[in-house]
Each structure stands twice: as C-alpha cells, then as structure tokens.
Design brief:
The protein is mainly alpha-helical. The protein starts with 5 loop residues before the first strand and ends with a helix. It contains six helices and two strands, in the order βαααααβα. The protein has one domain. The longest helix has 25 residues. Helix 1 crosses helix 5 and helix 4 crosses helix 5.
C-alpha cells in the first residue's frame, strides 16, 4: 500500500543502508555539538554578518539551539524558525532510523518523483530558505 508515494519495504541484501549511514552521521554530529556547547567552547561567528551586518540564512542557529536545550521553544523560533523545524525533523529521523536499524524493520521508501515533482520540491526548499532569510534580515537578530 502506498500513500503519497511512500511505502514500507525490507532492506534488499547488498543495498546501502541510508538509515544506518545518516542516523550515525546525525547522532555523531549531535554529540559533537552538545559536547562543544557543554564545554563552553566559543561558538563560530558568522563572517557575512561580521563583514556586512546582513545575517546569513543560518544566523541564530547556535543561540536558537541553546534556547531549545533549555526548553525555550518560542525564543528559539525567534532566532531561526527554519532551524527549529530542521532540528525537530532531524530528531524524528534519528528516532525512525534507530527503530528500523536496531529492530531490523522494513524501511520507508519514496516512489521515484517525476521530473515536475522533483523541480517543485527543489523550488519549495529554496523558497523556505529565502523566506527564513528575509525573516532573519527583518528581525535583525
């Protein structure tokens, strides 16, 4: 059964395991970032913002993450709304990947997108980033 082109299927022998690969990358990245913040190491400054005063599309992510870790979701959304969505999506993917890899469960797969659908997805992602960037420039974080 397929809903919106999604279906469950077992991992084919010899097939790459994206859930294992990307789940591991996300987990390792998360541990590194949490360790970095916990140790109080200096956070990187945005070169674009430092040189021009214009925030880049990722400005506010470190401060927003700090707010999220303290449970201040509203304040994190003010720093960078797209970052909050991306982090929550990454967390959901990490949970999904852990369940299917450890439990050796069937994997969720997309049907191949048509050329038109793929272009629409790309345009949608670019628009999300652009709207978020406009917000950051107007918010003057």
């Amino acid at each position: 059964m397929s809903i919106f082109g999604l279906h469950w299927r077992p991992l084919i022998p010899g097939e790459r395991d994206p859930e294992l690969i990307w789940g591991s990358v996300l987990a390792a990245s998360g541990l590194i970032v949490l360790g970095w913040l916990d140790l109080g190491l200096p956070t990187p400054l945005c070169p674009l913002h430092a040189l021009t005063g214009i925030p880049c599309p990722t400005c506010g992510m470190t401060r927003g993450l700090g707010c999220l870790l303290q449970g201040q979701i509203e304040e994190a959304l003010l720093f960078n709304p797209l970052m909050v969505v991306a982090l929550l999506s990454a967390l959901l993917y990490l949970l999904y990947a852990g369940v299917v890899v450890i439990g050796r469960r069937p994997r969720l797969r997309w049907e191949p997108l048509s050329r038109t659908a793929a272009i629409c997805v790309r345009i949608g992602v670019v628009l999300l980033i652009a709207v978020n960037w406009i917000y950051l420039m107007c918010a003057k974080i």
